[in-house]
Amino acid sequence: MKIIDTHCDALLKLQLTNRKFMFQESPLKYIDSDKLDANFQRLQQGKVKVQFFAIFVYPDIPADEKWQHALEQVDLFYTQVIGKNPVMKHIRKWEDIDALKEEEIGAVLTLEGADAFGNDLAKLRHLYRMGVLSIGLTWNNANLCADGAGEPRGGGLTLLGKEVVGLNNEHRIFTDVSHLSEKGFWDVMELADYPIASHSNARALCDHPRNLYDGQIEAMIAKNGLIDVVFCLDFIKKDTSNVTIPDLVKHVDHICSLGGVKHIGIGSDFDGISAHIKELENASKFQNLITELQKHYTETEVEGFAYRNFLEHRPGIVVAK
User: Fold this and answer.
1) What processes in GO biological process is this protein linked to (predicted)?
2) CB–CB of 312/319 below 8 Å?
3) Element (H, E) at 59
4) What is the DSSP letter of 8?
5) In 3D, which of 191, 58, 70 has the Cα closest to residue 132?
6) Which candidate, 63, 59, 267, places its Cα nearest to that of 149?
7) CA dist 207 to 180, 201, 212, 229, 237, Å?
8) Could you count the other beta carbons within 10 Å of the beta carbon of residue 198?
9) What domain count does the chain have?
10) Would you say 246 and 292 are in contact if contact means Cβ atoms under 8 Å apart?
């Protein structure tokens, strides 16, 4: 069964290794490096149809260097991900997914944290032109747009952050709530036309600030948003020593119990996590998750979780019933 995965950090891994190349390491080859959870070969083996690639800049990078770091990751996307793999096709607008051939894999650029553009909206518009289709206002820290989930102050969106959400709406871009503070989340609910939680689980099952409370999940459903379950062990259960695929499926069960069966997707966080669910260690193992889901849900429901819910909730897309 084909998969749409709305979050991985392969670009960051590629960048970090490239920057170390002159000192100690060889650059990673995106096509087959065993150091990349979501390399090209593993996407093929796992039947991934569309993979989202996050641009992420660490908050401790000096402010005047952050844009350069973001551009390096965009360059790696163009040169290594799609440049050297002809069947990887850049999805620049949502309709491009429908044009993918049987053997092709769609590649979507996203931004995780507005630190990359600061308060320069011209840079944000450049990101739109480069093909970025989803914007997360924060990582865990605070920035000029909002407070993140790890910021003790817990503030919401700034005026700049609200302006960014408005621009996302105009450009048919997702606004990603996965790393926002709780107040920031509710500000987005008021403003965003296209909300997504690209990689978050249910806080009722695992009390982690990166997960969503039931009320937040219900609000996402009411806004026609997507909630994509994440494979990070800390977000699945408190005891991370033995996390299995059925443990992850419990989060799917809980979101379904709140009415979210048509709003669930997958946001693995491959290459952004250092420990893995058993039998779900990289993108080649996606079908193990599908097999477990098929034990509990109808084929139509599992297809929804795997890819169809995303297709039906893309910004501005009207799907024939």
Assistant:
1) proteolysis
2) yes
3) none
4) B
5) 70
6) 59
7) 15, 10, 9, 15, 8
8) 26
9) 1
10) yes
What is the extent of the structural domain holding 180? 3-313
Alpha carbon distance 12, 14 (integer Å) = 5
Token pair 């407070």 is at which residue? 147
Which tokens sit at 17?
A: 């290794």
Report d(CA 247, CA 55) in Å as an integer. Answer: 29
Contact 50, 108 (CB under 8 A): yes
How many whole angstroms separate alpha carbon 4 and alpha carbon 289? 13
Paired tokens of 221: 């459903």
Separation of alpha carbons 167 and 191, rounded Å: 11
Gap between the terminal Cα atoms of the chain: 21
Position 32 in a domain: yes
Q: Is residue 116 part of a domain?
A: yes
Question: In CATH, what number is assigned to the domain containing residue 17?
Answer: 3.20.20.140
> ∠ at Cα 276 (301, 173), nearest 5°?
55
User: How confident is the prediction along the chain (321 residues), in pLDDT tens digits per residue?
Assistant: 999 999 999 999 999 988 876 555 678 899 999 999 999 999 999 999 999 999 999 999 999 999 999 999 999 999 999 999 999 999 999 999 999 999 999 999 999 999 999 999 999 999 999 999 999 999 999 999 999 999 999 999 999 999 999 999 999 999 999 999 999 999 999 999 999 999 999 999 999 999 999 999 999 999 999 999 999 999 999 999 999 999 999 999 999 999 999 999 999 999 999 999 999 999 999 999 999 999 999 999 999 999 999 999 999 875 544
Q: Indicate the pTM of the whole model.
A: 0.96
**Residues 148, 166: Cα–Cα separation, whole Å:** 19
The answer to whether residue 143 is domain-embedded is yes
d(C-alpha 201, C-alpha 194), whole Å: 19
Domain-embedded: residue 136 = yes
